[in-house]
Specification:
The chain is α+β, with helices and mostly antiparallel strands and 232 residues long. The protein is built from 9 helices and 5 strands, in the order ααββααβαββαααα. A 5-stranded antiparallel beta sheet has the order 2-1-5-4-3, sandwiched between helices.
């Protein structure tokens, strides 16, 4: 865990000008584990129909645990979005009565503690930033405050994307981000298969290509799929 300095926060704020909201969210969720005691994390957003979707994660393992919450309809991220308030879980096993299936899946993933922070906008909860740790215990007050700041930056990144394209309502903009995530996930799988690397490594390749050519992640991902004959 490293201590964020003013330059780090300036860089995060500057990144909000990036038109690729998914790339920004990926940076923010990684920052949440780099500067706190948590080791893994993910961001979920609410679509127009009220369903949650994973849009960013620190690893496939974190994405799997986030997806486990969505699949079982249990867990801190869901409770956080439903209530619009942070959810602190020092020991996930203690919540087995409330979250029987999620508690088991989290344990299988090697996680014992969790902390979910809402992404809020004028009383509306757009999603949550959820962190996990292999060790029991709550986040410190300092870490919890930092994670709320990062969640607020994540919300601002979504609003920034909305401001860049006023032709779409905010709900439509969120849906575009979710649709882009599907294309990116497919491209990660294609790259991993063709290069014989892990999906996490494939995402690094994809981001490097996008940044080196100053293009959006989704556009590079779509190009990969076209080259593989997986997209018309």
């Amino acid at each position: 865990m490293s201590e964020p300095d003013d330059d780090a926060f300036s860089a995060m704020a500057d990144s909000l000008a990036d038109s690729d909201v998914l790339d920004v969210l990926a940076d923010l969720v990684r920052a949440s584990t780099r500067h706190t005691s948590a080791t893994e994390g993910g961001i979920v957003l609410v679509d127009a129909g009220g369903d949650l979707h994973v849009v960013a994660s620190t690893s496939e393992r974190a994405a799997d645990v986030e997806e486990a919450q969505l699949g079982t309809l249990e867990g801190p991220a869901l409770d956080c979005v439903r209530g619009g308030e942070p959810i602190e879980v020092p020991e996930i096993a203690d919540r087995a009565d409330s979250w029987p299936r999620f508690s088991r899946l989290a344990a299988e993933g090697g996680f014992r503690a969790a902390h979910a922070t809402p992404m809020r906008l004028r009383g509306r909860t757009l999603g949550s930033l959820c962190l996990f740790s292999p060790e029991p215990g709550p986040l410190s007050d300092r870490d919890a405050a930092l994670v709320q700041t990062l969640a607020d930056l994540a919300t601002l990144s979504v609003l920034q994307q909305h401001a860049l394209d006023r032709s779409n309502a905010l709900g439509d903009q969120l849906q575009l981000a979710l649709d882009s995530r599907v294309v990116i996930e497919q491209a990660k799988g294609a790259i991993a298969q063709s290069m014989g690397i892990t999906v996490d490594e494939a995402f690094t390749v994809l981001r490097r290509q996008a940044r080196s050519t100053s293009r959006r992640l989704r556009d590079v991902a779509a190009e990969v799929l076209r080259a593989e004959g997986r997209m018309g």
